[in-house]
Amino acid sequence: MAYQLNIDGVYNMRDLGGYPTADGGVTRRGVFVRSGVLTELSPAAQQQIIDYGITTIIDLRNEDELVLTPNSFTDSTVVRYHHLPIVGQELAATDRWQSVASIYYPELHDYYAQHLPICTEKISAIMSALIDSPDAVLFHCYAGKDRTGMITGLLLGAVGVPDAIIGEDYALTGAGIAHLVTTWRENAIKNGDDMAIFERGVASKAETMLELMRHIRQNYGGAAEYLRTVGITDEQIARLRARFVEYPR
Fold it and tell me: In this structure, is the dihedral angle defined by the CA atoms of residues 248, 133, 112 and 149, taken in order, positive or negative?
């Protein structure tokens, strides 16, 4: 079961430890933490994150988002901050990405799946940073749902956490961002937005992640196999498993 972390100014934050793997292991706490955006945190809140053991922050957002909501750890002398967007402005400007972004996908997992063949260099850099960080790592986007959810799915899938558990973790975001969705929904109604499209975009149903993991298995052979296609080595995957999974005696 996920370990929820409650720190003022941070939402949708949880440790990915405590999940069973298919081979009888359990993911360790204090290795990977996912969350929503870290902006305008008080010194006390920043210290709580540091005290938890976080030594590396990976920010998955695009460059323009950093301008609007800066990361509180950008200039930290204690925590290593890495800006590693899944898409990024350069890739977002390409015809290949624009062809993806211009399409409406009735199912959210279909949109997620489009990142896999296009964002290979970005995903490789993110996963390498996660694997190679020596201590606890926190990674996030804005809501901690879509981009963070995709990376979480790959991370947990690569060490053998069953799809059903990965889906359950994804679904926990619903409660984590409920306050954001309420505000977004009010604004969408005022703006006359298509509410069917809106509700699809803000949902965090377990089935979305189940379908994404099914897609990865059908098209790549599984999460670890996908990571190999983007340049993650067998040695890195072995180190990830050794660091992230423990086997109760």
Answer: positive
